[in-house]
Amino acid sequence: MEIVKSIDDAAPPHPKTLYGWWRTWLDSGQDLMSLAPKGNKSSPRSKFSKEVMSELHTLVERLWFTREKLPIKAVYDAFCHRMNELNGLRLTPLKFPSRAQFYRIVGQIDKYDAMAAREGKRVADKHFRATGAGAVTHHILERVEVDHTPLDVIVINERTGLADGRPTLTLLLCRHSRMVLGFSIGFEPPSELSVMRALRHAILSKAYVKEQYPDILHTWLAYGIPLTLICDNGLEFHSHQLRRVCAELNIELQFCPKQQPHYKGAVERFLGTLNRAVCHRIPGTTFSNIAHRGDYNSADMARITLSDLKSLIHEWIIDIYHQEVHRTTHRTPTAMWTDGLGMVEPLLPESLMQLNLILTKETTRRLSHQGVQVHHLFYNSAELGLLRIRSNARYDVSVRYDPEDMGAVWVYDELQGDYIHVPCTNPDYTEGLTLRQHDQILKDTKQRGLDEQDEEELLESKARFQQKIEDLSRNKLIRERKKAARDAMPVPPSWSSNPALEIPKEPDTTAESLFEPLNFKVVTRGQGDD
What gap in Å lies between CA 372 and CA 411, rounded to an integer? Predict the structure, then answer.
């Protein structure tokens, strides 16, 4: 105490500490250097033999480094059991780590290696990745990202008032301006059809907005053919049809590395923002996960129809998202797009008919006296008969058809280098008929044991199928009501075309273009011309 007072020590050592120092000095043979600071404490593993540490690492690799994610407590219990077995065979027992020491030793293992072993290499790479600035773009439409998501809300049927289920959204986003180019909402699962719907909406102008949604204040300026389309590795993006569509529109199709969706992070984040800003505020929301939903019954609380949901999404995108400063660009998407128009003029197909022809499915069929047969429907015309007379033989022709309108197909005339529009031989049946509806009708026909039907029976089946949809719409099971909503007669898209699409423009040879011109033309032969 005298020394403490003489040096005026405000925090003197405890008597037990002094005793410990004295014992250390005494045990060292009264060596004062034994009281010198030792620096960092030695690792717990240095206190144990190599045999003990070898057993510890063996058990950690066998039990801890597994995808089953065994708790560390269970690993330590297995380690203690193993050490007790070894000590039962020895005269001098091995000293092994306590539970706390064991936890510290395991905690010193490289965090990346531990996560890669327990969670998977992809998760570890994502967790420990160094995030950079991402893809760099210089003008609008240079990089367009596309993705699907089920919307976090259940919608009801307009006719029955019952819940149809969660619709799916397919959306295209311009990376440079963060402007939404187009989207498709419906009960069609992620497929090449939903991608083509969204792509059509993205390319065309949005003049329909003022007519359909007069309450929306601003104009949706986005339109044009993307230069590059960034997508993931879903089967719909690898389809031959989508590759052909992109080739004919001069769109470069790029795929993200497998299981790394952050390569198109802009559209991924946008879809999450849209769900939170719109869907989570609507009665019938499913929220983002079960924990957030709690005991909220989304199906019983659903109050909004699919058309109402489309209206809300249009309003939020155009009047809010496009007018709000983006945290990455520090400007509004509308301002970025407007500035981009001064650098690049969006390109369009020569006509709306040509775009419709491109956004089809292509197949090969045998041309005969009956014309061509596509999905058990026959298509024939006088123009098609001239093709057969000219060849004087049955031969295969390239045929294109629109899955959303089976009323006619396009047949390629190799000699003229254009496509002939060929109507169905049963126009009353195919009027307003989609391929999905036709397939369901054929399935219903097969179940009834009708191998062949005349025109009246087909019309009767069509009416019966429509009644089946009505019945399923009132079914107690929500999956049946969702199926009925997907099969229901679609409302024809009212997206008006850009005026530039209605009147073909003269090719501009003075300015440089980002795209090569399309290498075929579209004719309307067979559509009632004299």
Answer: 9
**Residues ≥6 apart with Cβ < 8 Å to 149:** 168, 169, 171, 271, 275
Q: Which residue has the tokens 């020491």?
A: 101
What tens digit of pLDDT does each residue of 29-63 get?
777 777 777 655 555 556 788 888 989 989 898 99
CA atoms within a 13 Å half-sphere pointing along the CA-CB vector of 314: 26
- β-bridge mates for residue 424, sequence order: 379
Neighbours of 423 (CB within 10 A): 17
3-state SS, residue 261: helix
Answer yes or no: are the C-beta atoms of 141 and 227 closer than 8 Å: yes
Contact in structure between 362 and 372 (CB atoms under 8 Å):
no
What span, in angstroms and rounded, lies between the C-alpha atoms of 473 and 479? 10
pTM beyond 0.85: the answer is no
- Distance, in Å, from the CA atom of 163 to the CA atom of 153, rounded to the nearest integer, reads 10
DSSP, collapsed to helix, strand or coil, labels residue 105 as helix
- Can you tell me the distance from the alpha carbon of 16 to that of 84, in angstroms, rounded to the nearest whole number? 35
Counting every residue, how long is the chain? 530
Cα(265)–Cα(204) distance, integer angstroms:
25
155 and 302 Cβ atoms separated by less than 8 Å: yes
- The string of DSSP codes covering 464-485 is HHHHHHHHHHT-SSHHHHHHHH
Task: For residues 230 and 222, give the distance between their C-alpha atoms in angstroms, rounded to a whole number.
Answer: 18
